[in-house]
Amino acid sequence: MDHLDSVVQGIQVALQPGNLVFVALGVFIGTLIGVLPGLGPTATIALLLPLTYVLEPATAIILLAGIYYGSVYGGTITSVLLRIPGEASSVVTTFDGYPMAQQGRAGPALGIAAVGSFAGGMTATVVLVLLAPMLAGVALSFGPPEYTLIALTGILLVAWMGNVSVGRALIAAGLGLMLATVGLDPISGEPRFTFESTSMLAGLDFIPIAMGLFGLGEVLYNIDKSPTGTKIKHKIGRIWPTRSDFKQAAPSLARGTVLGSLLGLLPGGGSVVSSMSSYVVEKRRAKDPSRFGKGAIEGVAGPEAASNAGSTTAFVPLLTLGIPPNVVLALLYGALLIQGITPGPTLMTDRPEVFWGVIASMFVGNVLLLLFNTALIGAFVQVLRIPITILSTVAVVVMLIGVYTVQNRVFDMVVVLVFGLVGYALRKFGYEVGPLVLAFILGGILETSLRQSLLISGGDFAVFVTRPVSSGILAVIAVLVLVVVGRTWLTSRRVANTVTESESESESGSGAVSGAEPESGSEPESGSGSGSER
Amino acid sequence: MSDAPTETAGTEAGTAPAQPSERAWPHRLAWGVFGALVIIGSIDLGLGELREPGPGFWPLVSGLMILLASFTLRPPKNDEPRPETFSNNPWRLVSALVSVAAFIAAFAAVGLVLPVLALLVLWFRALAGMRWWTTLLTAVVVTAALTVGLVYGLAVPLPSDPLIALLEGTG
Prior knowledge:
The complex is a heterodimer.
Chain A: H1 2-14, H2 17-35, H3 41-48, H4 57-82, H5 91-102, H6 106-139, H7 144-161, H8 166-180, E1 183-184, E2 191-192, H9 198-201, H10 206-223, H11 243-265, H12 271-285, H13 298-313, H14 315-321, H15 327-338, H16 347-350, H17 352-372, H18 377-382, H19 388-407, H20 410-428, H21 434-457, H22 463-466, H23 468-508, H24 516-519, H25 523-529
Antiparallel strand pairs in A: 1-2
Chain B: H1 6-12, H2 25-45, E1 48-49, E2 52-53, H3 57-71, H4 90-110, H5 113-127, H6 132-153, H7 162-168
Antiparallel strand pairs in B: 1-2
């Protein structure tokens, strides 16, 4: 009965006029930035973090969560119309969405994507309602060893599932862990890596780092790009798919929803992994896989349902364990900390209005998003005409002033500038900043829980094996490591074979083939060095 | 992912434009040195014992992680983001960085209005390529909106601004 009361309280919070306005604003901004390539949800949430300081906790998280799942919807629009994914999880939608647009079926592609997103989002919110209280109950029995291993799993999975090699992701994660140690030691109080600067004694704050890496770093990266707006070539036409479209896409929608809901629960999960996995599943199950990549509606429906379901159930580990499973939710974790709330198993009982209010607002947000992405899609497309540099300029000013307002420190603005440059450089050199930020957030949890575990056990690492839950998590980590090492070994063997074959072919051929010549310098290294990556 | 059309995935994700080959050793060297420096710093802080880890214990873990991961670096595969060539016109980036640094210094010295206006004019005109007339109009409108919103709407505490003081008659 208590549980039901809390759910009712959450619905009341979500339906308060102020919160309705902010959920609408959140999903509107989310759709907008999903449409705009170059300004993703991570940068936008980082940008708005300080401004949420003045809002009530539930309202702030409702707004930011709306931006997150709104951007997953909005990212589809440019994927279908321009073959440019508005954000990472929409990459898969370009494979069949754009060919549909080329065939004059942009409307049904966008329509089925909106319906798929709605079905995935709503179903996953129900999963969230049912599953979160159970997991929070279990998590109450977790101690420092379990938290150490869960945080470690999160970092490892993010490193493994990223776009870059595991080595590069681990370096970014290591940098994040190292940066998290700057400031006073949480146990002895001794300064670490502060270089005798009083501003550094309090440690590096999460907000300026996130704003620098994602916000300013993204803006600096886009400065190299074209400052002009984008023109849409394909007509959208009738949005609502036909009955046969629905019939064809319905099983994919269902499979995508289930798959996304499950994958979103895992640390490292979320919309990107879910959409990609769904595409692979749909293609493998298809009677004629050759249709995929040429405008198969199942290739749009499944991944869209999966990405929205995944982005929603990804809230489960954040709200119940206090472990952000991906980078965007790491920013939401930061937003909760700004509000003086530490996410974890007690959040549901200590702050039910935040916990249930945010979840209830997702139902409202998904309904609004279905409306935005069907009836108002033409209006959102017009935003593409605005050059990204103009939006970026305003974003930079808001970002710098915003970060100052959190603690009234000019030092934080300097941190934004420094990490903006770091983010730009990392991206240019082929690294991802996601694992860095996630490791920075989880670094504090990891260090404290590991040191507490060692203090409890008198320095005996067996504490991670003797406890049933922690040993179970350890087994999962071991399986993951085995999978990664196995894949690495297989890949390196394949690469080595390919290199050997291409070298023998080029030796027997009549000379250098166009394109092969500049690559040759890297091939021997990739053959020898890849063995330890994946 | 591997089942997807590779051309579409690579080019449109904006992650893997065709680039010249990349050598791994500068990355290995740079990160290896950085990891080693972190390890030295950690030892200097004091590692403590396993039953009571010292302040350098956790930094040591992060340093080791960076050092060990640096050994595994190799040039990116085809489906991974490659290092990108830097712009032929580095002045856009340099001017953006210098202007942001100048903005921070000016913001601390003279408050909100003039630094915001100057940064907007510079970026709209020089980086976005807007016309002078549109630049000035947009910059003034955005500055006014930000000032009203932050100073009067949200009552955000900002460094003292002589221009606002003058307008309010308190300067």
